[in-house]
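Feature request, filed as a ticket because there's no other form

It would be nice if the structure record came with a short human-readable summary line next to the tokens. Right now we just get the raw output. Example of a typical job, pasted below so the devs can see what we mean:
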Amino acid sequence: MQHHNGRGFRGCVLAIVVATIGTWGLGGAVAQAQRAPRAAAAPTVTWTDPNPGVRHMTKVIPSIPAVVHAVVVDLRVPGVRIRTTPYAQRWSTVTEYARRNHLAAAINGGFWGFMQRPIGLAAGNGQLWPTSRGDDDEHSFFAVDATGRAWISVPSANEEEVDARRAAEAVSGRPVLVQDGQVSPEATAEPQYNSRHPRTAVGISRDGHTVYLVVVDGRQGHSRGMRMPELARLLVDDLHVHAAINLDGGGSAAMFVAQEGGIVSVPSGGRWDSRVGLQRAQKRPSQVRTRDDGTTEYFIRGVEREVMNHIGVIAPAGARPAPTSAPTANPANPASPGGAADPSAPAPGTAAPVVEGDDTYYVEQPEEYELNMGQAREIVYPALFGGGALLFLIVVGVGTWLVVRRVRSKKKAAVARAAARDAAPVVRPVPAGES
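Raw output as currently delivered:
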């Protein structure tokens, strides 16, 4: 009897051990399945035709995530031209520049230096800027001649100086992203190029009759931005550009499309925030969300930055575009068919929809600086720098004068003491026994 009970006890223990191991194995399998990454959604591409000869692509890449805007400009269409910023209109937001010149589309332009001067070549409205340099050996430039043909010149080109002289419109940038239809080695030349940021780029077709203006949203939840090699690959694979250069990105990156309400990109700095203090929040229903924990958040739009120059598009007026989903469309073919209007498309005066996780919302146009420094920064910055340098020179000069004065004073005192010793009578002791 006892032996029978012992066998039953051992059987129960064995069953418990097996069940426990099985549970562990099942739990491990479930945990492994939970850790397995879900397949990222496929990229979506939407095309609109805001004006004759002008196409606008919006590509959403959930795997990064990133949102890319590209305006494809066909310069063969009558009335379509590229215009860059003339010297008198430097330092304005993309929106200001576009509205002032009645442009169909526009993006921010090239880089500038500490002293608020353009880096590389800059031209607009047929005139070179007096502060620009056409002999920059590090920066390439995008340009359009008087006939309306576009090209990109790289520093190694022997004809670069000749190119600069015939540029009616020009903006400089670096690095070269695409050259001869291939990703350029420059796109991977620097370690910082492998960080994701908002980006702006310009490209051309082989014949110079098609221009590609590209802006990537970045530093936000719905779009992290792109690395330089990623942007270069997109330009080659999606837009089939022949040559392209990187322009000023970061907080400067912005794209304007007039027929779609203005700024269609989302400048960096926009964010969801539950603390609506001194900062102005947009409180339209489409810009308010409630989190799982019950917290109400408002989307605060970033500020559109003033930039030194821009690239704009002049085009004949067109009807408000109807979005079409066309992942395989040829962007170089402006005659590709459109589709039915999207009932969820934003109304005029708003930007394109922004998708962040499961939320889709629309945001108003970016706020603009309440205080526009504009061209005054070209005076203020050098003045501050010059004033600081002058103050430094004054301090150094005064300090040097005080040191020299002290040294001379000490030397003069030493000379005076030596002279006093020389002038003093010499008292000689009288030997003993002498009277």
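Something like this underneath would help us a lot:
Confidence is low (pLDDT under 50) at residues 276-286, 326-352, 360-364.
Residues 44-269+303-369 form one domain.
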